[in-house]
Amino acid sequence: MVAMAKLLLVLAVAILTISMVESKLKETNNAEEQHQLERVNGQGGQKNGQGSLQSSQCPEQCLRRCSQTRYKKPCLFFCLKCCRACLCVPSGYYGNKEECPCYNNWKTKRGGPRCP
User: How far apart are CA 13 and CA 100, in angstroms?
Assistant: First the structure.
């Protein structure tokens, strides 16, 4: 019985440790994204007026932007994230990113494009 209690205690500590590590990783990723967005936008993360959309218009614009891709879920996820940050979605289904500098310049850790 005592061995079972010790095992449960070890498991509980392990689960707690794992959840704390996951939480710390999420915080780190969010901080890195915020830092990168501040670099892209300039002015400490404030919107610098380059986007003319309102946040409520993002779903409609991203549905248009992602309508011809096979990968709708990830396209919509990242498009919405980028639109809410940059308040801009390029015209067309692909390319034209020069219309939205923030959208175009926001990169992943590996240097690839973050926004579709």
Answer: 48
Q: What is the pTM of this model?
A: 0.58
Amino acid at position 36, single letter: Q
Our separate counts of H helices and E strands in the chain read 4, 0
Residue 37, C-beta contacts closer than 8 angstroms, at least 6 positions apart: 45, 85, 106
> How do the pLDDT tens digits run along the chain, 116 residues long?
777 777 677 777 767 677 766 666 565 555 566 655 555 554 444 343 467 889 899 999 999 999 999 999 999 999 999 999 999 999 999 889 999 999 889 888 999 999 99
